[in-house]
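User: Just a sanity check before I run the rest of the batch. Below are the structure tokens for the first item. I only need the designed sequence back.
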């Protein structure tokens, strides 16, 4: 196995969207359901829904802090591996590995965040989006991060993919695919290597 050090640096702000609330038994899904079940919602109810929405979309670990799941990287590489390098997705999944599952996110204002609630209580980390759902438009909030970057090491089997091909896939994914939610409008970036 060969090893490559990579740094991804954001060009556009990054929106996080942890999909954990699709599980109806998730604590955030249950908390939101208590509010959405009401026929008449107060301003406080709507504000609490926004807080739940922001907190639930964060990837957070007590040791690492805010992080990027390594699956984002491998999915980005695999998604274009055939078109750009004629390597099947299954082969990429069996020969490219990130050495950590939680990759620390660096961003403007990270010194202000020690726990999830610090993101929820700071408007600097809020993006309010007006989204179409069916025939209506709804307002949703998401956690947003500016001037962001993250670093990781990737292990790869150079009998299946060489370093040049891997670098090309990472660069292409960062530049044209991006990371996070609502990409590539958000989350576009560039890659550098050591």
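Assistant: Here's the designed sequence for the first item:
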């Amino acid at each position: 196995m060969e090893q490559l050090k990579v740094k991804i640096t954001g060009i556009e702000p990054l929106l996080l969207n942890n999909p954990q609330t699709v599980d109806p038994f998730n604590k955030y899904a249950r908390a939101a359901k208590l509010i959405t079940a009401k026929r008449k919602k107060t301003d406080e109810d709507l504000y609490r829904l926004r807080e739940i929405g922001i907190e639930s979309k964060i990837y957070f670990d007590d040791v690492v802090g805010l992080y990027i799941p390594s699956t984002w990287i491998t999915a980005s590489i695999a998604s274009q591996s055939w078109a750009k390098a004629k390597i099947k997705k299954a082969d990429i999944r069996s020969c490219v590995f990130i050495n950590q599952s939680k990759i620390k996110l660096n961003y403007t204002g990270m010194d202000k965040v020690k726990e999830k609630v610090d993101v929820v209580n700071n408007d600097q980390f809020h993006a309010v989006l007006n989204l179409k759902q069916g025939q209506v438009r709804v307002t949703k909030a998401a956690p947003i991060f500016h001037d962001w970057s993250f670093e990781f090491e990737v292990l790869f089997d150079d009998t299946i993919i060489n370093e040049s091909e891997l670098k090309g896939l990472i660069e292409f994914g960062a530049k044209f695919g991006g990371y996070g939610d609502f990409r590539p409008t958000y989350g576009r970036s560039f890659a550098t290597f050591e």
